[in-house]
Structure formats: structure tokens, C-alpha cells
Amino acid sequence: MIRSLLNWRTGLAIIAILIVGSSVFYSQYLAKKITREERARVEQWVEAARLLINDSSGVSTRLVTLIITENKTIPIIVTNEKGDIMTVANLDSAKMNNDPAYVKEKLATFRAQNPPVEWVNPLHPEQRDYFYYGHTSLLNEVQYFPLIQLFIVALFIIVTITTIAVRNKSTQNQVWAGMAKETAHQLGTPISSLEGWVEMLRENPLNDPITAELQKDVARLKLVSDRFGKIGSKPKLEPNDIALETSKMVEYMSKRAAGKVHFSFNHPANTPVTASISPPLFDWVIENLLKNALDAMDGQGSITISLRENPKEIFIDVADTGKGISAANIAKVFKPGFTTKKRGWGLGLSLSKRIVEQFHGGKLFIKHSLPGKGTTFRIILPKAGIF
Fold first, then answer.
1. Any idea what DSSP says for residue 186?
2. Phi (first) and psi of residue 316, to 5 degrees
3. Of 6, 23, 215, 263, which has the fewest CB atoms closer than 10 Å, so is most exposed?
4. How many percent of the chain have pLDDT more than 90?
5. Which among 213, 220, 277 is positioned nearest to 244, based on CA atoms?
6. DSSP per residue, 103-116
7. Per-residue confidence (pLDDT) for residue 59, from 0 to 100
8. Is residue 6 classed as helix, strand or coil in its secondary structure?
9. In whole angstroms, how far apart are CA 19 and each of 23, 28, 101, 147, 149?
């Protein structure tokens, strides 16, 4: 999938480069052509002005006047040999009236854009006029067109890549959900058989100690199957006491942890802390965080679960004294498939984050972590009635 996405990106990038490169080349060609034509028109305008001044017969007056008045697009500023502004054409009259520096600023711009057309008075060669002219709106549009096209192509590429990524992610989610539901379905038959065998064992009182433990394990398998069956479906959320649910999982995990691991749960005493949750999925999150903490401690240390609240939110911190997480891995721990363990699929934290954030409207993140010191995960849940 990653290779396919990269191929798509490479292909789109090549197409974009070809489109923009061709556009830049052709736009530069057009710009140079328009520049030559504009200078030729300005030279005609200057020559017409010269004829109008020197032709006393009036024969060419009509033609010359037509040439001069025909120029309505090229802005022109005329100066004498001393640099004094003599006349202007096609400038914004409103700005000229309101801003005394407007014409001088335009003159500086025109000087930077094009060399002037020089006219020498044939009767007085020492008198010279310089015709400075600027770009027309057409030339500006041609020059800026490649940038606009580059923006459009870039936007197209971004939208395309985003669409492909979302589609691939959606497909991946559907595959995971399908696998989970199929796993739950496949577990159903052996679980039913195990329940039957447990009932048969109950008939002999001598099997009571074994039967009780088997019953717990069967109940556990049913819970796991139920969790997998809920993946991909919107769970039903109901108000529950978060302190009570969390304490159940702490007690369950503490009995199955090594004797050198100490568990402590700090929470408001005798006060329900209520949030709308799906108990099987919420228990799964707490179990994953506690298992992650146990794996990080190698059989000894302490795990502290702290619960507090404010008027709108509930905060659950799961802190351990384990090996911690390196700065390079902090951004990866919630990605599907990432794991530092020799065994495991790397799905526990990814699923936990999805359960908390997508199904319960909360947040799950690493509050802080120091290599060799430990890690603290934080869950934030909206209170019942807020989400």
C-alpha cells in the first residue's frame, strides 16, 4: 500500500512538473513577445508625437492623433533630460490627485521594468525627452499565470493524495474490523463447548476448585470475544461509575501480576465518578494500559492509577516505574503494528486510542515519559451528559 501511494505521488509530481514547466516556458515566450510588441507601440507613440510637433502642414495630424489616442493600455511617463516629469498617459487619475508621490513611484517602477525610448529634438539636439513605460495588465497576467497554475496543480495533488490516503485508511480499518468480527465468530464455538465441559465438571463436587477457575477463564474468553465483536460497530454508551470499573480491572490485573509489582489506585472515596462508557471496551483500554505497564517493568516496580475530575472531565493517569519510552518512539506508540516487544502485534495501544477518542469522545496520550524512569499515560473522558 505504501509503495502504491509513493508511486501515485511520484506520478503526480512528474505530471505537475511537466505541466508547470511547459506553462512557464510558454508564458516566458508570450511575455517576451508581448514585451517586444509593447516597445514597438511605444516607439510608434513617440514617433507620432514627434510628427505632431514638427508637422506644421497638418496633413498627418489626423493619423498621428489616432495613433496617440489609440494607446489606452500602456502606461507612459515622459521626462526631459533633467529628469523632470513632462507628461503622463494611462495612469490612475484618482491616485495622481490623492497621492503626490504616486507618479514618482511609478516612474521608478517603469525604470526598473524597461529601458526608456529616447527622443532627440531635431531643432535643438541638446533637448531630449525620455519615454518610460510600464507593463500592461495583459503582460502581468501572462507573467503571473505560471504561479497560479502551480497553485492549482499543487492543490490538485494535495487533494488527490489526501483522498487516496483516506481511502486506503478506510480500507485498512474495514479489514481490521472484519478480522476482529471473524475472530469473535470463530471463538464462539469453542467457548460454547468449554461452557458445556465446565457444567459437566460441576456434577462432581471434587472438581469444584478446578471448575471455579475454569469458569473464570471461560468468562474471560467470552469477554474477549465480545470485545472483538464490537470493533467496527458503534458501541452503546451508558452512564457508569468510572472508579468502580477501573478498580475491577486493577484488581483483576494485580492478581495475575508478579509478586514484586505493587498496584495502587487513588480515587475520590465513596463518591461515584460517572461517565458514559461501554464497559467492555473501557475495561479493554485499562487492561491494555496495565499490561503495557507490566511489560515495561520486567516483573518488579509499581503501577499507580490516579483518578480525578473537574466539572466537565474525568482524568485517569496510569503511571509505571518501568523502562520508559525513548523520544524517538513516543510519536509511534499509537501507530498500528508498532511494538518493541519480541511477541505481539502492536495493536493494543492503537485500539485503546481509537476506543477512547472515536467511541467515547475522549483523549488518550502519553503525559510524560523518561527512559529508565517510567511512563504515564493519561485518559480524558467527558462526564456523563457532556459528550
1. H
2. -125, 120
3. 6
4. 16
5. 277
6. HHHHHHHHHHHSPP
7. 47
8. helix
9. 6, 14, 42, 12, 9
Mean pLDDT of 144-160: 75
Compute CA distances 16 → 2, 3, 10, 19, 153, whole Å: 21, 20, 10, 5, 6
DSSP classification of residue 58: -
What phi-psi label fits residue 267: left (phi over 0), alpha (psi between -120 and 50 degrees) or beta? beta
Gap between the Cα atoms of 2 and 6, Å rounded? 6
Domains and CATH numbers, the chain: 2-141 (no CATH), 235-382 (3.30.565.10)
CA distances to 34, 40, 92, 137 from 131, rounded to whole Å, are 18, 12, 18, 19
**What letter represents residue 6's amino acid?**
L
What span, in angstroms and rounded, lies between the C-alpha atoms of 70 and 48?
Answer: 11
- pTM equals 0.52
As to burial, measured by CB atoms within 10 angstroms (0-12 exposed, 13-18 middle, 19+ buried), residue 306 is middle
**Strands (DSSP E) found in 124-224:** 128-133
Asked whether 349 and 337 are in contact (CB, 8 A), the reply is no
Q: What percent of the chain has pLDDT over 70?
A: 80
Identify residue 251 by its one-letter amino acid code: E
Measured CA to CA, the distance from residue 235 to residue 284 in angstroms comes to 13
The DSSP letter of residue 356 is: I
Q: Going by C-beta distance under 8 Å and a sequence separation of 6 or more, which residues neighbour residue 13?
A: 157
83, three cell numbers:
529628469
Cell numbers 487513588 correspond to what residue?
266
Report, as an integer, the average pLDDT of 65-79: 70
Which cell numbers in the block locate residue 97? Answer: 490627485
Query: Among candidates 367, 179, 381, which has minimal Cα distance to 285?
Result: 381
